[in-house]
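Lab meeting minutes (informal)
Scribe: AK
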Amino acid sequence: MTFSYASVVETAELSRRLRRITLRIDDPEALAVQRAGDSAVGVYFPIVTPEDERIPPPIVTGTDGTRHVDPASDAQGRNYSVRYHDGDLIVIDIILHARGPGTTWAAGTGPGDRVGLDHARSWYRPEPTTDWQLLVADLSGLPAVARIIEELPPGIRATAIVEVADRDDLDYLPPHPGVTVVPSVGTGNGHAPSQLAHLVRKLALPDGRGYCWFAGEAAESRTVRKYFRGLDWTIDELDITGYWRFDSETWDAKFALVEDDVLAVYERALADGKGDKVASEEFDDALERIGL
């Protein structure tokens, strides 16, 4: 099982753009929240009825015994980084946007509110031999960057390239003597062209073995991945994830026309024993070839 209901324990305003929500997990063993720096979980919001009731999202049990949110229901969800994790408690820090189901829920939720949690996972896996790290993110990845910085092993140097809306967003990042922050203020984040890939290419890379972790818009993630692969970085030195996609509705409509063909590329790579990271890379290359 990978699903669990959870209850909102408390909320707090961290800034005009960030709201912290603490959740108590009903079944932490089933959910199995990851301990990695970019640990994430899908949060499925209550369904609001015409009578203004807030009904927890319904679940279904698959033939293999796993439980998931019923895809045929009206439940909506979003993926969020786990900022802190302690037993059956998790803390998520949510970026508030102008609109969207996640923002609506985060702005209005309070203690006792019930949600569904699913698909706990993580990507951040630097090799033990890594000498330095490059962390690249826009606002969507800022909570994960903050946690990674807090949990950096002693002696590891890191550079964090972060794209934020305003300079005060940078106050969210914890100070760390081994971390250099390279900010880009007022760019990207769906409001202006992103500068993340440009800043990555502009950076003078340190000596030694590096590791790049990226969380941001999907098109930028592709550019950054191709840049490092062009420098002969291995797949183990990269964990590059598109957290969101610009104009996702148009992209989703186009993807639906070719979904079976491109998913077959991913599944074939897994069947050939290439592993999830290589399979994801080949999947993205297939998308690029058809203009997605």
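Next up, CB showed the second protein from the same session:
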Amino acid sequence: MYTAPPKSQLFLILLTFFCISSIFPNDTADIRSAIVTTARKYVGVPYMYGAASPSAFDCSGFVGYVYREAADIRVPRSSRQIWLIGLPIPLAKAQPGDILVFDTSGGFPSHVALLIDKTQMIHAVSQGPRTGVMISSLNDSYFGPRLIGVRSFIADMSVKRSETEKPNSEPVKNEIPIDTISFTITNEPVIYTDKIPAQVGSGVQFVVSNGTGKDGTFEILFYKMDLDPAKAKTIRQDRINIKAGSSIELDPIILTETGQYKLILKTNSNLKRVERVWKVVSSK
């Protein structure tokens, strides 16, 4: 038979309940504040494909490192997995520390940033007049129009996950960091040596867009360079068909050795349209 607790015990139970209820939101606010404060420490740190350390970051590596350091929260290692697994949040309801996801490659999530407040974000940027970890406006002329949504990995009693908002899968274990690099083929050749190195053990995924105005067939060659051309090592050689104005996503390439790598893209008539060189370095 149930016996009601003494009034003194009931008072303590109610007091404990109200204390916990009032503390939880504050704890969440503290976590969000710690994430933003930690992220700000790394402004100016250089960008490196595949990196996630205080000396260099890529975009998802930066987000993941800050979350672990500030709140011991693990998030996926790629922009795409962050998009798939995180809790969808409307931008109007997003809070500091939530993750902004962008489509910078034409078709899928390829860049992430941390929300600072209603007007600013902090992220590791790989292209533009400045690169590395920086603070940008949410109305940035490049990133602003490319925002596709917000994802949260921070528990909050004020946000309830509906049945349709459950993550598609658990975070991927030992996920290889993959950076998405986009090319638009035009009718003029583009030759480029990337000043940003890649970290050995990471990967690159090419998204190629056809901006020539005509359907086309293109040859893509990706290889490791050598002072002796006869010793150059072919990594990938593809023949692809792309309709005018469309894009195609190639399978990722894992960079397993240090050295210089080159991508060459030619038309079906052997006219060079893209040449790009990367340096792959050991992890720091």
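CB comment: The longest strand covers residues 233-242.
No objections, moving on.
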